[in-house]
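The instructor's notes for this session suggest beginning with a concrete chain rather than abstract definitions. Hand out the sequence below and ask the class to guess, before any prediction is shown, which regions might be ordered.
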Amino acid sequence: MADPMRIRAQAQGDKAVVRVLMSHEMETGQRKDSAGKVIPAWHISDVVATHNGKQVLSAEWGPAVAKNPFLQFTIKGAKAGDKVAITWKDNRGETRTDEATVS
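After discussion, reveal the predicted structure:
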């Protein structure tokens, strides 16, 4: 399984800015290894963010997203102490969920 995501959620007035660094290789399926064989595609396909259990973001990604992707978004109505969870799923069926508290 992939390394934990680095999530920072900071309150700014009546909203929170969430920054997420995901650890994932993100292969496009177009590169070749040293033997000349194509490296199979392996990338994050779905990302979901929740704020206190309520979904606030949903995204579908493809192979064009860079290795170890960075995501930033704003949640209206968030305050210090609220929980923000990020879940990703890749095209091999692997998933990862991590959570942070708004500070």
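Then share the key points. Strands lie at 6-12, 15-21, 44-51, 54-60, 70-76, 83-90, 95-101. The CA atoms of residues 54 and 84 lie 9 Å apart.
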